[in-house]
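Below is a filled-in request sheet from our internal design queue. Each sheet records the structural input a requester submitted and the sequence that came back. We keep these sheets so that new team members can see what a complete request looks like end to end.

REQUESTER: design group, bay 2
PRIORITY: normal
MODE: inverse folding
CHAIN LENGTH: 514
BACKBONE (tokenized):
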């Protein structure tokens, strides 16, 4: 008997559509991920990757480890740094197609749900730079797939696998706690509550806890800095949104064309009789949505729920089309989403020259929803934070090189935030600059390094800020850039001499967790 080619088995397995669309997602990011420049957080993660630990003030260790691995294997280029996120984003598409298959969806439903993930601006943004978020989406999608298999097959052994995924996910981002919260609420409010009384489920949660334990110990040793970080961010940085504003921000970030699909997903999970075993997901979405409103969360925090909701919505839409013989809606819907995705893609991906992008956004009157209490400039923050870092480093280098050689030997550089400090540490190597120090997040834990503080180049602030602690304060430069965030523009550069107190006494005062 002649052996059938391997791709015929792929076609029959229902994997063909998700695999093709996952490769499409990967290709998009491989073509776009070299645009503009290094993102603020990427520079910070590069700094963290040089100081691997079981935790950091504002994130668990996995993203620093991924950054370290990426740099060791591929180097420091933008393309290299963003390859792992591109792969993770593609895997989210693949998992979305598998979730559709588990829910009973066919090829059209798979194509619709996968395409929804591809064109969604929030997934385009997160898949295009190194961050916790793209891996967070991956862990949520994998957790959802495992949960569906548990509910469909009643295989309680999979709770251990789910516990492993949740535990590793917690080592990436604390927000996967919300998956656990939504899961418990969903189980209690649905017929799946019997799983609450199975030993395997609690063993799975115990496994997740054990995997998370090293980070928890790190938090304990350092006085739970993430708690202080989250509290400060909620009080002083994140915008407090009304339910209507939160919903509007969510619609913009997922793509306005996709909101009906999400609603169909909610209807599917909550009301469709064949979906009764999966009511958990409907209650999960409602409970997490409510919790995020109560806690003033950023709108993109709820994005990890979209793949499972799109999957549910796609299955219901496919059922409607087949019941009413509306086959023409299949190509029309996919073409409609492709058009919408092409229209919004420049708002999420750095694919246009910056001046062209500004005109494009003005012409369409489009803007990214704000999640932080900061003034914005001509670019949305996810683009503005890709500009100015090497130019800032060059400006600091000019100041440093103007110092006498004797002063350079004991001069330090103080930055106001981890973006500035990360830029000095990364780009400063080719300019011969010393490492930066800062009071912001984990830079504060790393301390003042070996600096005495007697001579310090300080980025930003005012003379009055430093005259109380230095004998001599002189503004020697000004950093300006058209495209950076306003609070990163017009930054004075100071040379300060003669610290009036010791660095050990001063350091507790500069701590800034936010």
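RETURNED SEQUENCE:
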């Amino acid at each position: 008997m002649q052996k059938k080619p391997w791709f015929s088995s792929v076609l029959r397995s229902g994997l063909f559509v998700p695999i093709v669309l996952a490769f499409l997602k990967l290709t998009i990011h491989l073509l776009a991920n070299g645009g503009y420049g290094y993102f603020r957080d990427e520079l910070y993660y590069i700094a963290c990757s040089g100081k691997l630990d079981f935790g950091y003030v504002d994130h668990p260790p996995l993203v620093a480890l991924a950054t370290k691995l990426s740099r060791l294997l591929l180097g420091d280029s933008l393309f290299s740094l963003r390859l792992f996120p591109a792969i993770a984003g593609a895997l989210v598409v693949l998992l979305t197609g598998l979730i559709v298959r588990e829910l009973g969806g066919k090829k059209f439903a798979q194509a619709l749900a996968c395409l929804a993930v591809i064109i969604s601006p929030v997934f385009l943004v997160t898949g295009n730079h190194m961050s916790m978020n793209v891996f967070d989406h991956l862990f949520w999608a994998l957790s959802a797939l495992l949960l569906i298999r548990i509910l469909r097959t009643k295989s309680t052994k999979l709770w251990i696998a789910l516990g492993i995924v949740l535990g590793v996910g917690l080592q990436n981002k604390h927000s996967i706690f919300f998956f656990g919260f939504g899961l418990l609420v969903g189980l209690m409010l649905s017929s799946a509550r019997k799983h609450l009384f199975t030993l395997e489920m609690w063993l799975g949660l115990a496994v997740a806890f054990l995997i998370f334990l090293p980070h928890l110990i790190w938090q304990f040793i350092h006085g739970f800095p993430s708690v202080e970080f989250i509290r400060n961010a909620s009080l002083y940085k994140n915008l407090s949104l009304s339910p209507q504003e939160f919903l509007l921000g969510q619609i913009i970030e997922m793509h306005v064309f996709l909101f009906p699909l999400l609603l169909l997903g909610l209807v599917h999970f909550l009301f469709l009789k064949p979906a009764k075993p999966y009511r958990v997901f409907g209650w999960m979405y409602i409970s997490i949505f409510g919790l995020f409103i109560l806690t003033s969360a950023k709108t993109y925090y709820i994005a990890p729920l979209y793949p499972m909701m799109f999957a549910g919505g796609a299955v219901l839409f496919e059922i409607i089309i087949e019941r009413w013989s509306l086959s023409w809606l299949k190509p029309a819907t996919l073409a409609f989403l492709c058009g919408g995705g092409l229209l919004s893609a420049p708002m999420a991906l750095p694919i246009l020259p910056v001046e062209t992008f500004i005109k494009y956004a003005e012409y369409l009157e489009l803007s990214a929803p704000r999640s932080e209490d900061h003034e914005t400039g001509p670019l949305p923050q996810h683009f503005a934070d890709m500009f100015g870092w090497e130019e800032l480093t060059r400006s600091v280098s000019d100041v440093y090189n103007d110092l006498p050689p004797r002063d350079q030997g004991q001069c330090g550089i103080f930055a106001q935030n981890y973006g500035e400090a990360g830029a000095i540490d990364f780009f400063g190597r080719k300019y011969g600059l010393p490492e930066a120090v800062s009071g912001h997040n984990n830079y504060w834990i790393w301390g003042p390094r070996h600096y005495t503080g007697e001579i310090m180049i300080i980025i930003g602030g005012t003379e009055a800020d430093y005259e109380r602690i230095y004998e001599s304060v002189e503004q020697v430069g000004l950093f300006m850039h058209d495209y950076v965030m306003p609070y990163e523009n017009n930054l004075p550069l100071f040379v300060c001499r003669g610290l009036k107190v010791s660095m050990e006494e001063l350091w507790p005062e500069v701590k800034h967790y936010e």
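SHEET NOTES:
- The radius of gyration is 25 Å.
- The beta strands are 411-415, 436-438, 455-459, 470-479, 491-499.
FILED BY: M.R.
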